[in-house]
Amino acid sequence: MRNAYLVYAAKRIVQAVVVILLTYVFTFIVVSILPGDPVTNVLRNPQNGFSEEEIQAIIAAQGLDRPIPVQLWDALSGFVTGDLGLSMRSGRPVATMIAEVLPSTLILASMTLAFSLIIAGLIGYGSQALPRKYGQGIVRGIPSLFLSVPNFVIGLLLIHIFGFQFGLFRVIDPNSFWATFFASVTLATPISAQIAEVLVANLDNESRQEYAAVARARGLRQVRLFFLHLLKPSSLPVVTVIALMVGEVLGNALITETVFGRTGIGSLVQRSVSTQDLPVLQAIVSLAAVVFVVVNLIADLVYPLLDPRVKLVGAVRRPTTADEGSANIPSRVVTE
Amino acid sequence: MTFSLNPLAARIRTARWSETFPPAVLLSFLIVALVLAWAVAPGLFTSHNPASGVPADKLLGPSAAHWFGTDHLGRDLYARVVYGTASSVTSAFIAVVIGLVVGGLMGLLAGFLGGWVDVVLARLVDVLLAIPNFLLAVIVVTALGFNTTNAAIATGVSAVAVFARVMRSEVIKTRQAAFVEASFLLGGSRWHILLRHVLPNASRSVLPLAVLRFGLSILVIASLAFLGYGDPPPASDWGLLISIGKDYLKWPWLVYAPAFVTIATVLSVNRISRWLRKTN
């Protein structure tokens, strides 16, 4: 068992490193080989008003005159050693630019995670404890409603209601408590819906198990049944889902930060996209991938330790046979 | 033992009509049909011109004359939504087709051929999954250039990985089924098995996924349009309309009307997807 786990862990770690490196290469190819050639697009764009000498200086500094594979190799080895290069627009180190805006996004992301768990928990509780016909039906419909609303609409709705009508926060002050609060709620809605979907499915499954029937027969009330028995086994698979959601938070932050006018990673992406600042884009996308891969790696490594029923077959995480029919472990496919 | 290649049709034949189509599903089909009709023949649904307005009528609330009110240039918002439908729906369709064809092919090859093809494609899918979905769409549309078609392509690229995953697992599941082995033993060629057995079976779970992705693509494309990565005004994609509306939050129908249409459409599409999955 120990041995199998070590093999599994080693393989997963190697795989994660490979994926991170490949992702960097993929992103590099997308941003540098596709039609958007940085020299003509950004530097020679008359709007930017670079003189020919400045252009030559930037080309030399960024090494844009070298063949693409050489550039890739340089960028990749820089990335591995923690050097993210220089911004094509401002000439500042990309790492500094990211470090400046990171705290704001981290606050947003952690509040989002907290709200997502709270909302998903409430939906999960409602799906079990409310009266079957109307209460449960409504609560169970919430995730699909949340997943059908464009994220920016939720943001605009909250700004309109709480910012404009109730005057809780002002749009020009995006870092105030309430603005951050509602920005996190915005980000949390689709995330909570996806967590809730898995949670509800697992709760349903657990409440059909014999031990739940026994507990009910002993006269355990629904509240205690939920917290004492159903919640723990049902929330284990949620660990995997939360790890998958990290990428979604990073991607959606782009929209939420724009809607709420916050500065953060998302707005930095937005700015680098509009100015075609490719080194910044490349760095953020690769770092997002690193975060995603590492978080999922941790989830995959911790999972077998949390759930002793999980057997490691050929270094791949699989549910044990007794568990197989229950589809307890979500696959890594997010939508199903 | 018979294998129905089309369980949906079989189900519809045997079950009672009202059981097969719950009211919510019927309503969803109606909404989707209406939206498709808007896309095909917008002129039939409104007599207003989406591009030119009456300045005197600017920022009017919803009324009998202007169902969704008017915008800051006095243009009828309902007409703008109706005329914007074609672009929003078509681009979501393009995105799904790209995801379905590219991802499906990747999954099919990986699952059917196995070996190093599977390994290479699996790593590619891992890479695509490692980049946050929306960020991936953003960098692809940045590389291609900002317009609605490119936004659709970018959305499609961001959907490839999911299709590849589902298709691969379905193909592997089917390959191991007894009737496929039987077909091999009876001398069925690889092509025959692929087309006659593997694809029809895989389509059972890929079809609901495609429908689900259609709804999601509407949202992603609306988000890209909202950020200004789609066609510029006077185009009237739903996301763009909401984006314009956000500068006029004092007149909230400019946001809520196109948002309502988007939500109703996506909700209906998702309901249909869930129904398809269940009837299968």
Automatic annotation (TrEMBL), chain A:
Pfam families in UniProt: BPD_transp_1, BPD_transp_1_N
Subcellular location as annotated: Cell membrane
Topology in membrane: Multi-pass membrane protein
Record field: transmembrane: 12-34, 106-125, 145-166, 178-203, 223-246, 280-303
UniProt KW keywords: Cell membrane, Membrane, Transmembrane, Transmembrane helix, Transport
Residue intervals of the ABC transmembrane type-1 domain: 102-303
Gene3D superfamilies assigned to the protein according to its UniProt record, in alphabetical order: MetI-like
Domain of life where this protein originates: Bacteria
InterPro entries xrefs: BPD_transp_1_N (IPR045621), MetI-like (IPR000515), MetI-like_sf (IPR035906)
Biological process per Gene Ontology, one example term: transmembrane transport
One CC-aspect GO term: plasma membrane
The family this protein is said to belong to: Belongs to the binding-protein-dependent transport system permease family.
Protein name, as recorded: ABC transporter permease
Native organism: Paenirhodobacter populi
UniProtKB/TrEMBL annotation, chain B:
Pfam family, one: BPD_transp_1
Topology class, membrane: Multi-pass membrane protein
GO biological process, one term: protein transport
UniProt xrefs under InterPro entries: BP-dependent_transpt_permease, MetI-like, MetI-like_sf
Source organism per UniProt: Paenirhodobacter populi
TM helices/strands, residue ranges: 21-41, 92-117, 124-145, 151-167, 206-229, 249-269
Protein name: ABC transporter permease
Protein's cellular compartments: Cell membrane
Sequence similarity: Belongs to the binding-protein-dependent transport system permease family.
Glycoprotein as UniProt keyword: no
Keywords tagged on the record: Cell membrane, Membrane, Peptide transport, Protein transport, Transmembrane, Transmembrane helix, Transport
Residue span, ABC transmembrane type-1 domain: 85-273
Major localization class: membrane
